[in-house]
Amino acid sequence: MAQQFEPPSGTRDFLAGALRTRERVFAQIREVFERYGFEPLQTPAFERLETLTGKYGDEGDKLIFKILRRGEHEASGEADMALRYDMTVPLARVVANYGSQLPTPYKRYAMGPVWRADRPGRGRFREFAQCDVDVVGSSSPLAEAEVVCALTDALDAVGARDYRVLVNSREALAGLLEVYGVPAELGGGVLITLDKLDKLSPDKVAAELVAARSLSAETADSLVGDLTAADAVERMRTALKDSDAGRAGLAEVDRLLELASPKVGAERIAFTPSLVRGLDYYTGVIFEVVAEGMPGSIASGGRYDGLISALGGPDVPACGGSLGVERIIGLLDDSADQGERLDVAATVIDEAGAAEVMGFAAALRDAGLRTEVYLAASRKLAKQLKWAADRRARFALIYGAADREADVVTVRDLDSGEQAQVSPAELVAYLTGRYAPSR
Amino acid sequence: MAQQFEPPSGTRDFLAGALRTRERVFAQIREVFERYGFEPLQTPAFERLETLTGKYGDEGDKLIFKILRRGEHEASGEADMALRYDMTVPLARVVANYGSQLPTPYKRYAMGPVWRADRPGRGRFREFAQCDVDVVGSSSPLAEAEVVCALTDALDAVGARDYRVLVNSREALAGLLEVYGVPAELGGGVLITLDKLDKLSPDKVAAELVAARSLSAETADSLVGDLTAADAVERMRTALKDSDAGRAGLAEVDRLLELASPKVGAERIAFTPSLVRGLDYYTGVIFEVVAEGMPGSIASGGRYDGLISALGGPDVPACGGSLGVERIIGLLDDSADQGERLDVAATVIDEAGAAEVMGFAAALRDAGLRTEVYLAASRKLAKQLKWAADRRARFALIYGAADREADVVTVRDLDSGEQAQVSPAELVAYLTGRYAPSR
Questions:
Q1: Is domain A341-434 annotated with CATH 3.40.50.2300?
Q2: Which one of A134, A385, B91, B241 counts the least CB within 10 Å of its CB?
């Protein structure tokens, strides 16, 4: 394959098999979100540049695909639009723009591509699908529970197994820093290092806390030791009681566990005091869904009450989460979608009968049978039957001069090899009667 | 609505109602194309700039959205990628790239957005959906007929009525110019002017042929007179017999009429000698589907044997067509999709019972009922029932302290006003038994 004909670096062409797998997964997820009363939203592929810049930090800003101005302005080399980088900034714009037209709270889902100029790599793309649910305008813990339930329900629907929901809270993390005597100005850095506990050994994390985050060796050892102990949860529950923030955070976590457990199962959701993630904008509970044998998370989210206003929208509470849909699709066995079976392959071995063959095909399609007519040049039956087999057709139709003479269509069952001659008027009834198409 | 929160000029936000209408139309069309054995293809939103430039003519090139280079190259002001402008250039790249992995012939459909920096206007967008079927690798008239049948079948599926398929051929047009004595070098311009016969009076077209296309008044009058006569088709059939190209073109047209008529209906498809369209790349039959009371066409296409190689692909015959899907959606009454009905609205008037309400909602959703839990702050029943009515719920659940005490859920039928007390264990059976959700 010549490089010039490949899709641009970090993007993919989806041929039929892979595309059907994706569409099936999206449909399964959509059905779950609809059952929860989330409404779909689709925003444009690009936004005004100023809508996006400054919203994703310096690193994020560099990954935005910018669109050059057009016409006489093209020569300026300036951009005025940029490709969607996530689903959250467009949500904030929509909430700001349509306000009272939207239900309160506004529960929406968004599924579609986003674009990031990241270095492409294994499983990392420049065009990839995101799949978000958010509740804007509710500060209720019920909203957080609904988000967690909708995401795990969607994971069930797409066949994810053996996952666990890890729950923590930003308040609980603030309490943690407080009770271990971490100075406020070091807190952010300490949490960034603690977030590595799922990848690095406790010793290495403690060493980084001392070397890079200026903690005393004693504080670092105590913090890391307690967080990684076999009874870490109990130690943390006890420790957090010494702080107002800690108690408030624990209460948030426990309320979410209580509300989500009827659906998720109490054994699959747990307080996880070392969970840190996305501290930049979360304000309340945070969660991640992890699965046996998979690095990273397959879903995540939390409460982010200040974000919609920071993004230019009104000052409303909000929470939400995201499914790692590319990762999920990457794990699926898509062989079932590699080529949908054809019901009927209509051969054309006699030019004079071609219009009648088109008529047979039309009638079969109207009856719901997936039917193709042979479109290549050969008029040899053997070659056309080879094509029918390649297309994995269940039946082949043959309508040669002798058939026309006798006013019959020859129907060959390509599974059994049996063959029957059927009157054209009875063809649809014959095929639908002995065969229910699988679609 | 502040301008800064509106979607960029020429693009649209699709809220739930409009998006459901679109998705329904796309699903109906997809189902038809699948029944014909067309395979889906999805290519990236952007292509390398050099893949697109020079493919759409000077005017088209100006309408391409170009993406600025990134990182250290951003300051150059140069572009290296560009947003997809149509579905045909990506098809050519895919055919060139995947060759033998694709079925022969390759019958594919593509549905999705394309982007053009056109001046936005009524019904003209910068981001809009295209919906194409193409057959690559067949020079058979059966392929052209399959394209016409698939497109008209899709029009039937989305509810289009009273349309007609106009058919002509590039060869027939060459023959027309020949028999009316138009010099070859004037041919292109003459056809561009003749293409205006559906908008301008015959007199004006004849005048333009003389003034702008250098035809003699006699030739112009004869050509326009014959093409607009009541018996134009007969006159043209007679005239074209005097030319090799004319006879070949007529034969192409008649074969398509014969092959497509069993499906389309002979009364809805006709030779239309004045049909010109897209002469830049069509090489054989051309067609347009027009509907009563609608300007322009709702579908169109033809054979374009040289295009795939001109676009960088291999030298293969091809034909295809496109549905004017935005135009079709614009005509639909989308009131039916303006808000899908909720099956169950679960109120939360008693904080202590909230987890059990979440459990009821989970069970109802598992049974397929579209269920929402009240997420706003009020704990007043009247306010929550108002919410249930706003969400057009069929049933409301009430689970207050007295209900918990009695171990029942109060189910209110919001259509009839009737109310029943149901044991939590029987809730799902009670609701699914007396009510079949419409989804």
A1: no
A2: B241
